[in-house]
Amino acid sequence: MTPDKMIYKPLQRSGEQCVSVSLNELLQLSFFAKKFSFKALRAKSPLAGQRNSRLLARGMEFAESRRYLAGDDIRNIDWRVTARTGRTHTKLFSAERERPVLLGVDMRSSMFFATNGVFKSIQATLMMGYTAWNASQSGDRLGGVIFDDKAVQEYRPALGKRGVLPFLNGLAAHTALPHKVKNNNSLAASSMMDRAIASLGQIATPGSLVFLISDFRNFSPYAYNLLLKILSTSDLYLCLVYDPIEAALPKNGYYHFTDGISDHHINTYDKSNVEKYAQQFLERRKKVELLAQQPRVRFFECRTNEDCFEVLMKNFGS
Q1: Do the domain assignments include residue 243?
Q2: Domain boundary among 95, 120, 154
Q3: Interval 29-59: pLDDT, tens
Q4: Other residues' Cβ atoms within 10 Å of the Cβ of residue 83
């Protein structure tokens, strides 16, 4: 069976597959990554939307200089700019312009939840797995951040397997439930998201394509402003991942939920509780939608009971 005829259905996951993803599974996503096309949202930056091949040929038209990165050909060092700035720069030619792709993935404890389908963390992992392979196969530098309740893991952009494999390893490792500790500190959760977005801003260079996938809990005004700053030079894709029960509680009844660490009891006979709960989700979504009104932003959603492959095909199918 050829890759084009193979079918990958996240909804067929069951048992442990609903709460964790292996590295081997993420490697298999490479067969399907070319089915998506993440185009530049606005061609303001000279690098935005460039899809030229990365030919390294002498005599080609000089495009610009940028900071030297590990793996660059030392023969293309721009010594004049290096001497003037005191930092090593390399020359880019018109046929080798590149678009750094940066992925921000939320792995805080709130992402390890689902009442229907797979954990939010699994949807995020699979969607960014597809995106990582798409960037690698398109000749783009891949990097980004993965953040949880305790730390932000940063990945500097790199080409090919040097970029995609470490990132996929990080994704697989973060889905391991035994390493997760429940964190009810909303201030700490907000702080980690702030730090993660700040790291994305530091890594991003003009013309970057930046993805952020999260449930956007504890999305602070500071994080909002950091994303606005990223938008000044880069394109931004935002994905809100949520469980259906976060948007609307079930019908009248007494319900018990657990994430394996803590228990929650909800009385949906109390209409005030139901309305308050629904309003909290609407306010969370509205914050992201407000940002999505800016130029160069693409906003989409994915529920835990959806096929994330189909969500990507619907929004970015080529």
Answers
A1: yes
A2: 95
A3: 999 888 888 865 543 333 334 444 333 333 4
A4: 9
- DSSP letter string, 48-76: TT--------TTPPEEEEEE--TTS-GGG
Do 72 and 206 lie in a common domain? Answer: no
- For the chain, the domain total comes to 2
Q: How far is CA 129 from the centre of its chain?
A: 9
> Which tokens belong to 227?
């994303």
Q: Residue 227: how many CA atoms within 13 Å on its side-chain side? A: 31
Asked if 181 and 87 sit in the same domain, the reply is no
Q: Which amino acid is at 207?
A: G
Structural contact between residues 69 and 92, judged by C-beta atoms closer than 8 angstroms: no
Q: Name beta bridge partners: 144.
A: 103, 155
93-126 b/e (C-beta count within 10 Å ≥ 16 → b) = beebbbbbbbbbbbbbbbbbbbeebbbbbbbbbb
Give this prediction's pTM.
0.76
For residue range 305-317, what is the model confidence (pLDDT) as tens digits? 999 999 999 998 8
Residues 105 and 75 in one domain: no
